[in-house]
Amino acid sequence: MGFRDKIKKMSFGRWLKKFFGKSHLRIGIYGPPNAGKTTLANRIVRDWTGKVMGATSAIPHETRRARVSSDIVIENDGSSLTIDVVDTPGIATKIDFHEFVEQYGLTEEEGRRRAKEATGGVIEAIKWLDDVDGVLLVMDSSLDPFNQINITILGNLEARKLPVLIAANKIDSKNSSPSTIKNAFPQHPVVPISALKGNNIEKLYKRMIKHFG
Amino acid sequence: MAGVNINLISIERLAQFSSRDKIRYILREVKRGNVLVLEQGLTAQEEAELIKTTMSDIDQDTFIGIEMQSYSQEDIKKGSWLSKLLRRKQPPRMSVIGPADLLRTIHKDGNMIQAVVLTQEDVGDGNSKSRPPPPKSHTSAQSTDNKKEEEKPQENEGD
User: Tell me, what DSSP letter sits at residue A65?
Assistant: First the structure.
């Protein structure tokens, strides 16, 4: 990336941080439900601190409150990046408790409670967009990338001039196609990974240091 | 008369609203069971606001949310050097927004949104997962901008 491109991509806030030497950045992990956001957050936090950030589940909207893990130092090839990781709830345009009951076997009471909490989580995730310095956008590489949530999140990040790195997750799954994501969003860097298995995770760290640092 | 209203909203009509009023108008219409096709869609920020407001309004017994589909806003490629430097965006392209229990997207790519509109008869008792499959009507929207089809996918530097 040339110097001119860097200037163009940098928001006023990021300039101020560079100027005043803010020591680390706040990186939000965003995406639709079940893309693997918390699995990736756990991977990052565990790799660099040995701790775990949150529970994961096959049931959508497992993460219903944003969680922050501070002062994560990522190192690669002599370079380092200090970040606060913000694991956000999945963003959705609809939440139907029937899905939890019929597809995942929750009771109606559990389903309704989960749905109510999930609506609050979506609102919280969107509000966090105002408080992050960069975003790891997690997409399930076995699904269609033209998902409206991906479009809306990317549009907001571009409007805010926030740097974004797309993690094409779940490359260990049978139908994975990270190239479809690359073709869909050629203007953004894409790193194919498996947050669950750890495939390509070093490549992601290297790219994070280069892109967010 | 049974069926679903599909309202095609012109740019001029939308221009009468502030962002907040536009979102209120859209949600009001969607909650009435109408599907809206906006000649000029929402900006990404407006979409995020619409999602936030939708989440606040969700009631599991009467309104489970919206189905929304739009295209990405492209960067301005022609125009002043300042527009290009600031990476200004072209105006939003067409959007379709409807009640989540009536509107289903069946295909979407960079130039086409294909959706199924269910009728109240299809929806039945309101239990989305028990709805019968055959749709009563079928609509699709194709962008007039075919530039993307001509462009070859670019390799991304990310890998």
Answer: S
Give the length of chain B.
Answer: 159
Least Cα separation, residue B64 to chain A (angstroms): 6
0.85 surpassed by complex ipTM = yes
Closest CA in chain B for residue A155: B44
Cβ A95–B72 below 8 Å, yes or no? no
Residues of chain A with pLDDT under 70: 1-23
Query: CA-to-CA distance for A79 and A205, rounded, in angstroms?
Result: 10
Entry pTM: 0.83
Q: Which residue has the higher pLDDT, B150 or B6?
A: B6
pLDDT tens track for B67-87: 999 988 776 666 666 666 666
Question: For testing the chain A interface, which of B43, B50, B60 should be mutated: the one with the most A CBs within 10 Å?
Answer: B60
CA–CA dist B157, A9 (Å, integer):
16
What single-letter amino acid sits at A103? Q
Residues of A in contact with B73 (CB under 8 A): 155, 158
Nearest chain B alpha carbon to A121:
B55
Spatial contact of A42 and A138, defined as CB atoms under 8 Å apart: no
- Yes or no, beta carbons of A96 and B158 under 8 Å apart: no
Q: Which amino acid is at A153?
A: I
DSSP annotation string for A135-169: EEEEEETTS-TT-HHHHHHHHHHHHHT--EEEEEE
